[in-house]
Design brief:
The chain is mainly α. It has helices at residues 31-45, 51-87, 91-124, 155-171, 176-214, 216-223, 225-250, 254-260, 262-271, 278-287, 292-305, 308-324, 331-344, 354-367, 371-383, 385-406. α10 packs across α16 (385-406). The protein is globular and about 65 Å long. Pfam families: SDF (PF00375).
Length: 426
């Protein structure tokens, strides 16, 4: 029987004694190893690279950051709006559920950091003093030029717009408007695929190159080594606790789920940006079995409102600065600070250093930090900003798993796990 004309010819069977022809598929050099290489090269070359050449990468990073800031509101509207619309009538409850879980997670991390810091830091930092540190932005390598790329609207405007439009889509019959937002989502995803993902390693390289050449990261880490180690241990405890809950929700091995989030953790570690990590976090979350409609709704939302790692780090460093500067540790004032910090973090942009900039006001108003203390806080935070961001985005995957379990049967749409949109290079 003759095969149809459009059937490709079968591959010739290997002759006895001869090995089969090797597959032509080339091994893919994934995002995670590229990030690791970029970090290592940034640190090593930062020791020897001339400033004139380093300014090229600083210029690139400035342009990349400006474009990312421009893209963030479009990412939120393009991903959150159609995701809410696809969730159907349960979208309002989904929004309240996700926001409530994110706030509780953030507050619990802040209270944990406060309790451990108040217990350990007065002993660990007894007799310690902190010298004057420059603001990292003042000593940064200047770019050759900058280009302003103002976003179409602010992040909070994008969130409110996405909520209103998305919930509105659940109240009307599916039609051209829903399809238009789905096409907008495709455009946003393709832009991320074609620009953000391929350029991330170069951006990460430039960040670590600048930190090494400025020397700020070594100064701050050397001064607060005990605090850094304590924060790192706390982030590990937090992530294990979050994924124990996520494992229960998905009925899966929590350690395997946490391992699958490693590319998102590494990306956030290099970029210090929750927003830049959204596509990677989405991919990792879907691989953990979270349905695409849930993941597409929860992950971009949590990139803005869930800053558990940042809250943990801000609280720990705030207590450390109060200890080394001799300020009294008032438990009631500190608990109030943590509760307010959880609210302030909702408005923090998902870009490098966004959390500490949002928190600077309540550091002064609630804890009485002066200019020097706030400057020291900013220097300490920005130098290791990426660890808090990495904890934030990794925890977003756990929240998505928990929301998926709690929302099962309460929203319309296909909530079965699927692979979703594959992002090239992840």
């Amino acid at each position: 029987m003759t095969p149809p004309a459009d059937t490709p010819p079968a591959a010739p069977a290997p002759v006895d004694g001869e090995p089969a022809a090797p597959s032509r598929r080339r091994p893919r050099f994934g995002l995670l190893p590229r990030i690791v290489v970029a970090i290592v090269l940034g640190i090593l070359l930062g020791l020897v690279m001339p400033e004139a050449l380093a300014r090229v990468f600083t210029t690139f990073n400035g342009l990349f950051s400006a474009f990312l800031e421009f893209l963030i509101p479009l990412i939120i509207v393009g991903l959150v709006t159609p995701a809410i619309g696809e969730l159907g009538r349960g979208a309002g409850r989904m929004l309240a559920l996700t926001a409530g879980i994110a706030y509780i997670s953030t507050i619990l991390c802040g209270l944990l950091a406060l309790a451990v810091s108040a217990l350990l830091l007065p002993r660990m930092l007894a007799g310690a003093s902190v010298g004057t540190l420059e603001n990292p932005e003042d000593s940064a390598i200047a770019p050759y030029f900058t280009i302003e790329m103002p976003p179409v609207f602010e992040v909070m405007t994008a969130l409110i717009l996405a909520f209103c439009l998305g919930i509105g889509l659940t109240l009307v019959r599916r039609g051209a408007l829903q399809e238009s937002f789905e096409q907008l989502r495709t455009i946003v995803v393709r832009t991320i695929e074609a620009i953000i993902i391929p350029l991330l390693p170069i951006y990460i390289f430039g960040m670590f190159l600048g930190l090494t050449m400025n020397g700020q990261i070594w100064t701050v880490i050397g001064t607060f080594l005990a605090v850094v180690l304590m924060v790192f241990v706390l982030t590990v405890i937090v992530l294990l606790a979050q994924y124990c809950v996520a494992g229960w929700a998905m009925r899966r091995n929590p350690l395997k789920m946490l391992w699958r989030m490693l590319p998102a953790y590494a990306t956030a570690l290099g970029t210090s940006s929750s927003a830049a990590t959204i596509p990677v976090t989405l991919q990792c979350t879907k691989r953990n079995g979270v349905a695409a409609p849930i993941a597409d709704f929860v992950v971009p939302l949590c990139a803005t409102i869930h800053l558990a790692g940042s809250t943990l780090k801000i609280t720990s460093f705030a207590v450390a600065i109060m200890v080394v500067t001799g300020m009294p540790l008032d438990p009631a004032k500190l608990v109030g600070f943590v509760l307010m910090l959880g609210i302030v973090m909702i408005a923090a942009p998902g870009v490098p250093g966004g959390a500490i900039m949002a928190a600077a006001g309540i550091l002064s108003s609630m804890l009485g930090f002066g200019e020097a203390a706030v400057g020291l806080m900013i220097a300490s935070y920005i130098a290791i900003d990426s660890f808090g961001t990495a904890t934030n985005v990794t925890g977003d995957g756990a929240i998505a798993a928990l929301v998926s379990r709690l929302a099962r049967g309460r929203v319309s749409g296909d909530l079965e796990a699927d692979d979703g949109v594959e992002l090239a290079g992840v």
